[in-house]
Fold:
Amino acid sequence: MRKKIVAGNWKMNTTVQEGIELAKGVNDKVSGSDVTVILCTPFVHLTEVKRQISKETLYLGAQNCSDHQSGAYTGEVSAAMVKSAGADYVILGHSERRSYYGETDSLLADKVKIVLENNLTPIFCVGEVLKEREAGKHFDVVKKQMNEGLFNLSAPEFSKIVIAYEPVWAIGTGKTATAEQAQEIHKVIRDHIAAKYGSEIAENTSVIYGGSCKPSNAKELFSNPDVDGGLIGGASLNADDFMGIVTAF
Ligand code: PEP
Structure:
């Protein structure tokens, strides 16, 4: 059965000390339900945040990693480093990485491989910009991102992937996809997985939603049959708001 997941993407926010306090606040409130809760922190926070995590359903993640295993890549952070800091998850292909840092699906395919080789779970982001949705191209956009970023994986490899559907027009804008829009495209994503890897793998893949998710709209979004949780930006920076989303399941 697929996991219910709520992952917080802290982005480039909080000092290490603030991150410790935020993680403590979340850890205190996590109550061991069937929801997997993940804190995706800046790299330099990972080790310290790991020390604050004591609940069985609370996990650590990074927001990116290098497409190289190791070596002379000044300023980069490898998947092995992320793993050794205590993380289990890595966000890959966030729209901010795609648009500000030029990350392509082919680069992301390399990162996915390296992340899996290091026994980390990729949270692979897909999603269309507003122009693409207005032109009715949103299904084709996410399918292409999946084809090029993920569909070179073997079935056992793909079984380890989490997909985050994040309409770029909803990220940090206060505009949320409606529950109907989310369900519609999550079903397209699941059907696309089924066409490539079969219905059993598709049924077992968690597909989470991201884009201005808050305690007030989480319940409606998560009640859809193909929405398995959320990737949360702004609201993950406040322990009460974040846990309000977790408990919306
Ligand atoms: C995100 O950046 O992954 C995100 C979903 O941000 P927000 O919740 O702030 O829209």
The first strand starts at residue 4 and ends at 9. DSSP finds twelve helices and eight strands in the chain. Residues 147 and 211 are 22 Å apart (CA to CA).
